[in-house]
Amino acid sequence: MQISVISGSPKGEKSVTFQYVRFLEQAFPDHTFTVVHAGRDIRAIEEREEVWRGLLATVEDCDGVLWATPVYVMLVPAQLKRFIELVGERNAAEAFSGKYAACLTTSIRFFDHTAHAYLHGVCDDLGMLYTGFCSAHMEDLRNEAFQEQFILFFSDFLEAIIEQRPVQRVFPPLPAASACCALKTSPAAVDTRGRRVVILHDAEPGSDQEAMVRHLAACYAGPVQVAHVRDAGMKGGCLGCCRCAFENTCIYDDGFRAFWNEYVVPADILVMAGTVRDRFFSAAWKQFFDRSFSNGHVPAFEGKQIAYLVEGPLGHLPNLREVLTGLATMEGANLAGIVTDESDRIDAALHTLAERSVRLSERGYIAPATFPAVAGHKIFRDEIWGGMRAIFKADDRYYRQHGLYDFPTRDYPKRIVTRATSLAMSIPAFRRDVVEKMPAYMVRPLEKAIETSTVLAKRRAK
């Protein structure tokens, strides 16, 4: 069979992901693999008609499509995102329709599930028959047990094609764009109380996004900085070269770092406005997020209030909402809110967002982390300590300075108590007593915390 591999890595054949493709080529020599380096060759694909037509011919002639890509900032790289946008812009979905598809990603398994959901949704929108995914750690190929499972994954994909296996659509079609929103005059502007408000956007003239950005800016009484992400002057997307790992300095010599330092770093309230393109924000926004990787694994939004303005059907895109939420919470910020153009009370929602963002910023509120942020921290902590710190020097310094190497094995008093309790639990009488009194044991430290709380004492004294 003819398999078309759409490679999302900007590093092409030198990428980690491509080595997994090479493994499949050798494991299945009776099948032909034709690789489209969408990530590496995105400029040529955009600008040269013969490259674009050759690419489509490759897809049209194949029996199945394997999307093979690294995970960059919770999704596919901006270069592959742009390729997917081009398929829509140039009405080329017919070349993909009816093709069986599978997805291979390489990462440290941080938010890989959102990248898979995105690609699955794209395949459904293109009329493809999505059979499943393989999520590989960057070093899994060194493990022969994984190699066996990897072969089984691809064998299942081939069998689906041979059997013409029926595949049901999982992600419903997105609704058509609604009419432009009508925004009324906003109520009295909100005093920013000295908080610095920044709104970043990629709005097209006359769009709902432009109207929402303009209206929200007017909701704040203090000065508001508004900037288009194209003003960053980015020469290209993240190359995955990891040269930023030593000193958080990107290999690109363009305007991104100056833009970041001017707008993002000093912001107390950072609003990011975008329009849904396929099932995410634009490739320009994705490029902005990817380029922020030059900050390493240091929480770049720490202490800020983050908000989003969304033009498009966010209510039908829980995966996009999860990524937007994760971008805030994983970076140590608080998600102040998201406003979309899906309702008829947008003006009221924007004013409420302005009020809430200022109030939360003034109070210094950061919501407690939930599972994605807690689990994400532990993944980064273990990966950096376990081997990445040899290269990611800046991350290692930051993690050491801020106590982020918080391994439970280093809490020696707790380990001693746990060990002693474990030994005592081998005594039947002690174990029966503990089981009987377990609820009381669990709440006793919390009851003591309430009794001795200086925070509560201060509130009572007011």
Order of helices and strands: EHEHHEHEHEHEHEHEHEHEHHHHHHH
DSSP helical segment count: 17
Helix proportion: 40-55%
The parts where pLDDT drops under 50 for at least 5 residues are: none
Give the beta-strand count.
10
What coarse outline follows from CA principal-axis ratios?
globular
Mean pLDDT: 94
Rg value = 25 Å
- Helix vs. strand class: alpha/beta
Strand content: 5-15%
How would a crystallographer describe the biggest sheet?
5 strands, parallel
Q: Order of strands side by side in the largest beta sheet?
A: 2-1-3-4-5
Report the span from N to C terminus.
Answer: 76 Å
Describe the structure.
With 462 residues, the protein is of the alpha/beta class. The protein is built from 17 helices and 10 strands. Helix 9 links the parallel strand 8 and strand 9. The longest helix is centred in the N-terminal third of the chain and has 20 residues.
Layout of SSEs?
Blueprint: E1 2-7, H1 16-27, E2 32-37, H2 42-47, H3 49-61, E3 64-70, H4 78-89, E4 100-107, H5 112-125, E5 129-137, H6 144-163, E6 197-201, H7 208-219, E7 224-228, H8 256-264, E8 269-275, H9 283-291, E9 305-311, H10 318-329, E10 334-340, H11 346-363, H12 371-386, H13 393-401, H14 412-424, H15 428-436, H16 438-451, H17 454-461
Parallel strand pairs: 1-2, 1-3, 3-4, 4-5, 6-7, 6-8, 8-9, 9-10
